[in-house]
Q: What sequence folds into this?
């Protein structure tokens, strides 16, 4: 990765796991890294790790299933870090189980995080990128969306 110094990069779901690793790597490459996660403490810990390594990072408690929460966090991120140049839609969630064991509440949560979350992020961030002359979007998906996955019917549909 080259040419990322001072680019503002948003990473959803970066309080842990793959998102944390992505945020850390972007921080190493010189990005001003913005962590959006429902887990405030985890997001702050990721930001602190990036800062301890000499990078610039910001953490915002954000519910990506709620467009107003996304909008507020992205607006604040632009005030704090500058124009958004990179969006990494990483956040995801599921609990594998047989479809007939699931219910509407479970479906709503899986669909909210894995489908509406990225849609909300795109809808809020893309107009800002266009206004600023462009940007890059990375959507993290799953092979479950291509071939299905046993015990993950709703998740697979979202991905």
A:
């Amino acid at each position: 990765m080259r040419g990322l110094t001072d680019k503002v990069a948003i990473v959803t779901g970066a309080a842990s796991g793959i998102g944390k690793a992505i945020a850390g790597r972007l921080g190493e490459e010189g990005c001003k890294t913005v962590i959006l996660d429902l887990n405030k403490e985890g997001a702050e810990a990721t930001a602190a790790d990036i800062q301890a390594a000499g990078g610039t990072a910001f953490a915002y408690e954000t519910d990506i299933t709620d467009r107003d929460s996304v909008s507020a966090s992205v607006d604040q991120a632009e005030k704090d870090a500058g124009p958004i140049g990179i969006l990494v839609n990483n956040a995801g969630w599921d609990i594998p189980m047989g479809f007939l064991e699931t219910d509407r509440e479970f479906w709503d949560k899986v669909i909210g995080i894995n489908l509406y979350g990225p849609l909300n992020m795109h809808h809020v961030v893309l107009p800002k990128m266009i206004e600023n002359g462009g940007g890059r979007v990375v959507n993290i998906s799953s092979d479950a969306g291509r071939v299905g996955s046993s015990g993950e019917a709703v998740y697979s549909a979202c991905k």
